[in-house]
User: Which sequence fits this backbone?
């Protein structure tokens, strides 16, 4: 009989792991707490415009991601940076016009980053993907792992967790307990995007390009800290998208929006106010991204890639994966792919 594998999390790592193990003699089920796949990859459709509110950019050093896009025949294109850009060093002075030198380009996926996870999901015809389902307990007392969710009980041979490590050790009860060293490190592990605020404004016209402006903004004063042209590849949808200062979480959505619009008007003029849609995602308020009980300051990428996450537990029945576990590029899409490929290869070698 096929061995049963339960994968916790339907983000890039979880879906790709399932794909790498497909048709290899396993009965695979993916449990996802959100009501959608993708995890920290999340593309919104705003009219004709695809707006990435999570993972977006990659570059030439991300070889595994480029190879995966080629494997699934997914197109990508260079992030537009042509034209004048703006830099705000001080709040009391106007934004400075700067020219950004041509360095290693960044790229975006045609149709939005969610194209990648959707394409993988479409290949998983025989894999059960359960949404809006949370894992509450995993019992490794006997030969089988007993996975208890809010909806069912599953007997599995292997369990692969791809969710943030801090969430795993805080939200899931393990019988017997996980090693204390693993718990301590996991609780103090930074989850990529956990403090990010992503904002996007959709427009009917690409007004900045008409003026010879790139749409790129860097600011020391905020509320927007970075902003980029986020128009579609085929230029049938137009947007500006970037990051707001994490301190903006203290304000209401209406207050944040007012402050952001004031900054955009100051930089671009009144045309920036003629938007059709405003979107924001506060990742610290996503309960399946940030561990709300995490105590103290965790610096960016803290404990990402720690070797303890690449050990196997409970006599090779529990495997930890996800981008924060990767030996290279932890916290990025590249890391998510490296982690998925690694854990799949480990299981296939048993």
Assistant:
């Amino acid at each position: 009989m096929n061995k049963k594998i339960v994968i916790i999390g339907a983000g890039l790592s979880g879906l790709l792991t399932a794909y790498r193990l497909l048709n290899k003699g396993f009965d695979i089920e993916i449990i996802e707490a959100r009501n959608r796949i993708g995890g920290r990859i999340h593309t919104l459709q705003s009219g004709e415009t695809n707006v990435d509110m999570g993972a977006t950019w990659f570059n030439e050093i991300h070889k595994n991601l480029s190879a995966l896009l080629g494997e699934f025949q997914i197109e990508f294109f260079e992030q537009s940076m042509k034209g004048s850009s703006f830099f705000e060093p001080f709040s009391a002075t106007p934004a400075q016009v700067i020219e950004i030198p041509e360095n290693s380009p960044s790229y975006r996926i045609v149709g939005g980053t969610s194209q990648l996870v959707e394409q993988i999901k479409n290949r998983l015809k025989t894999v059960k993907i359960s949404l809006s389902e949370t894992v509450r307990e995993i019992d490794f007392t006997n030969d089988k792992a007993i996975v208890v969710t809010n909806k069912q009980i599953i007997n599995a041979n292997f369990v692969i967790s791809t969710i943030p490590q801090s969430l795993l050790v805080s939200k899931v009860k393990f019988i017997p307990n996980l090693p204390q060293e693993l718990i301590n490190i996991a609780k103090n592990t930074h989850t990529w995007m956990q403090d990010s605020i992503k904002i996007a404004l959709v427009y009917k016209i690409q007004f900045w390009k008409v003026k010879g402006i790139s749409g790129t903004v860097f600011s020391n004063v905020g509320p927007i800290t970075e902003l980029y042209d986020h128009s579609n590849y085929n230029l049938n949808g137009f947007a500006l998208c970037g990051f707001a200062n994490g301190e903006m979480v203290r304000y209401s959505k209406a207050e944040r929006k007012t402050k952001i619009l004031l900054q955009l008007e100051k930089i671009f003029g009144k045309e920036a106010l003629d938007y059709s849609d405003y979107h924001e995602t506060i990742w610290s308020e996503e309960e399946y991204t940030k561990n709300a009980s995490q105590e103290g300051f965790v610096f960016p990428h803290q404990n990402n890639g720690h070797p303890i996450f690449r050990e196997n537990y409970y006599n090779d029945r529990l495997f930890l994966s996800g981008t924060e576990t990767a030996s290279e590029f932890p916290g990025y899409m590249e890391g998510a792919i490296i982690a998925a490929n690694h854990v799949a290869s480990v299981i296939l070698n048993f």
Observations:
- The first strand starts at residue 3 and ends at 8.
- The mean pLDDT is 96.
